[in-house]
Write a sequence for this structure.
């Protein structure tokens, strides 16, 4: 993402251009957490054109949905863990980080294509274990998978913004949400923890929860299935 940002600032990388890394030594995910990977996994950043203002708060959900949809078309069925982690068979196979830059959006993507970190290498208190994503076609490498993903995401992004309103998109997004209707443990910072039931998504892209009969909207934090 740092390389992509520098190239964008120099005018050397435009919309739908991307940067791929065979490996990285300082991967980062949501909340500046480290992203553990090895050669053979997909590590990339995609430069996307900005969305109109009504979509601003929903960008992480939009890209989470688009990549989950594309991965489902190319292999195992995928769901989105709010806001944009991607799960297959209850395990996290891909993570995303969305950053806004002047005139564009950078979407960093990591997919466990060849290797997934074992439980002992992951942080304590994580929401779930890591898993590998399995494409339908055997022998698909990071470059092939990335080309197919970008083609589908670019087409889907333009169609989505043209054909649907943000409110209509949220209805579609709910069909790919993990743990909808299920009980989760919510962590807001280091000190606030409580159980709640996942009810849906707010118009601002927050996670709507039922906390002991009271509706609350989570805008930042972690959720773990109970």
């Amino acid at each position: 993402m740092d390389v992509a940002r520098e190239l964008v600032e120099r005018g050397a990388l435009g919309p739908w251009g991307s940067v791929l890394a065979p490996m990285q030594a300082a991967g980062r995910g949501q909340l500046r957490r480290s992203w553990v990977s090895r050669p053979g996994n997909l590590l990339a950043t995609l430069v996307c054109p900005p969305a109109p203002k009504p979509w601003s708060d929903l960008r992480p959900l939009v890209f989470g949905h688009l990549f989950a949809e594309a991965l489902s078309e190319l292999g195992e069925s995928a769901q989105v863990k709010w806001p944009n982690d991607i799960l297959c068979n209850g395990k996290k196979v891909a993570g995303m980080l969305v950053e806004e830059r002047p005139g564009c959006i950078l979407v960093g993507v990591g997919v466990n294509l060849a290797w997934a970190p074992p439980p002992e290498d992951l942080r304590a208190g994580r929401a779930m274990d890591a898993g590998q994503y399995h494409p339908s076609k055997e022998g698909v490498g990071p470059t092939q998978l990335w080309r197919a993903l970008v083609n589908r995401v670019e087409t889907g992004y333009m169609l989505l913004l043209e054909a649907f309103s943000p409110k209509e998109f949220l209805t579609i997004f709910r069909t790919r949400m993990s743990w909808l209707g299920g009980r989760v443990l919510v962590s807001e910072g280091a000190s606030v923890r409580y159980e709640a039931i996942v009810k849906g998504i707010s118009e601002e892209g927050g996670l709507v929860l039922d906390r002991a009969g009271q509706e609350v909207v989570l805008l930042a934090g972690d959720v773990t299935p109970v």
User: Anything to note?
Assistant: The helical segments are 2-9, 59-74, 142-163, 166-174.
